[in-house]
Amino acid sequence: MGSTRKPLPEDTIIVSDVTSISYRSFDEYPITVPRTFLYPSHSVTLGFAVPAAIGAKLACPDQHVVAFCGDGGFQMTANELATAAEHGIETISIVSNDGSLSAIRGSQAKTFDGRVIDTEMQTPRLADLARSLGARGIRVDNPDRFESVFADTLGLEGPTVIEVMMEEQRDFLISRVPWLYPDT
Hints:
about 15% strand; Rossmann fold; alpha/beta
């Protein structure tokens, strides 16, 4: 997450979906300007980030807007990118694609002696999905490349989706969910 913070102005609006990566942002992502961190606190609505980011950009057109998404939540509202593309609404959606509803998987494993059910997903190529909706779609197969890809997308017109492949890091992501493992 630090690699996304460095190149962004302090007043960048961060929109976090309900996902393992976003849970770490509560403690690890520095927010210094009020009203620049959006999260569906009370409803914990999966799929919040993409439409909320579009709305935030419309409300604050002079600020950067970055959404942190998991693959499950992203797929629930990705179709909103078509509207963003049609109207040239500049947002960046960073999608962690680990092929799983990871936080739910971790919760099941912890509660039921390692047993899990229905948390694996057949996830399409999300960068391709973004392009089919008129957005810019970039797939990062090696997470080590993410920082340079992210920096190159800042200021580009219209919506951008950066799909970061994280299947091999899924267990690590789950281990970092603070409400599952508070000592991490």
